[in-house]
Specification:
With 302 residues, the protein is an alpha+beta fold. It has 3 domains: 50 residues, no CATH class; 164 residues, Beta Barrel (Cyclophilin); 64 residues, no CATH class. It is 39% helix and 19% strand. It is built from 7 helices and 13 strands. The strands form 3 sheets. It has an 8-stranded antiparallel barrel with strand order 4-5-12-9-11-7-6-13. A 3-stranded antiparallel beta sheet has the order 1-2-3. Strands 8-10 form a two-stranded antiparallel sheet. A hairpin with a 2-residue loop joins strand 1 and strand 2. Helix 3 packs across helix 5. The radius of gyration is 30 Å and the shape is elongated. It starts with a strand and ends with a strand. The relative contact order is 0.19.
């Protein structure tokens, strides 16, 4: 490179003014900075993707064939508990003890191991429960893996059984059926959410007035309180309305929509839907226990 007046000769023999070269250097700096930034962002994204844990996969083997299910990372307590019990061989030779066609198949009761024919099952477990893990966007579609639990009257927090689970078979609903079902569900839970609303600390005064009105038979006051709390209750009721995604799922894939937001879904079937259907169609007694035992073997395969 040689200097000639205010021009600089590059080894290729081209001539550039000093002003143009300075401008070129500025662009080169910007380009270099942009490339470095893109590479850095890409590396960070790659590392973040690598850090995301893979969803565990379990295999349930029965005389009807194999079912493979993935466990959701969004429900870590249920995921970890199911893996722990599986690795301890807790589910080995346990039965699918409750089967209802077009609804679900249920198992995980340790008392079902070697249980004599006709014995009532469904009360066994490891002696603990798991807090509910309701996740928006996870529904009771066909193939959903969910935790069984005791009823609301003795279990208002909807805690899950420590070991009993079910796999949804369900059925497909048309739009009219689903709309009717949604309305029934909204009516069912409105009184529950009204009580929950009054139970909030900031509504203690309203609760006291309402309870006094009920005891004294003052219908006007109780009705007035119901009207005052309506906006708050309506806000709470939004979670019971089916989303666009739920409408799509239940009118195409099918499932059991009435269980959403009430039982924890913590995984889904990825292989073996034919096995699920075969088990769901077995003959059962009046307690929904299969007449011929459906024994399971469960293993973690990833």
């Amino acid at each position: 490179m040689t200097e000639k007046g205010n021009e600089i000769t590059i080894t290729s023999g081209h001539f550039f003014s000093l002003e143009k070269l300075i401008t070129m250097n500025k662009y080169l700096k910007y380009i270099t900075l942009s490339v470095v930034t893109i590479l850095a962002v890409g590396l960070i994204s790659f590392k973040m993707k690598r850090k995301l844990p893979k969803e565990p996969i379990v295999k349930i083997t029965t005389k009807f064939g194999v079912m493979k299910l993935k466990l959701y990372n969004e429900t870590p307590q249920h995921r970890d508990n199911f893996i722990k019990l599986t690795k301890e061989k807790y589910f080995e030779n346990v039965l699918f003890h409750r089967v209802i066609n077009q609804f679900m198949i249920q198992g995980g009761d340790p008392d079902s191991k070697g249980a004599p024919k006709g014995k009532m099952l469904g009360e066994g477990g490891p002696g603990y429960t798991i807090p509910a893990e309701f996740v928006p966007g996870i529904y009771h579609k066909k193939g959903a893996l969910a935790a069984a639990r005791e009823g609301d009257e003795v279990n208002p927090e909807k805690k899950s059984s420590g070991s009993q689970f079910y796999i949804v078979q369900g059925r497909v609903f048309d739009s009219t059926q689903l709309a009717t079902f949604e309305e029934r569900r909204m009516n069912q839970y409105r009184s529950v959410e009204f009580k929950n609303c009054l139970s909030e600390p900031e509504n203690k005064e309203l609760m006291d007035k309402y309870m006094h009105a009920i005891k004294s038979g003052d219908r006007l006051t109780s009705a007035d309180i119901v009207n005052k709390t309506k906006p708050m209750v309506d806000e709470r009721m939004k979670k019971y309305k089916f989303t666009e995604k739920q409408w799509e799922i239940y009118t195409t894939i099918g499932g059991t929509p009435h269980l959403d937001n009430s039982y924890t879904v913590f995984g889904e079937l990825i292989e073996g839907f034919d096995v699920l259907d075969s088990i769901a169609q077995v003959k059962t007694d009046r307690n929904n226990r299969p007449l011929e035992d459906v024994v399971m073997s469960v293993k973690v395969i990833r």
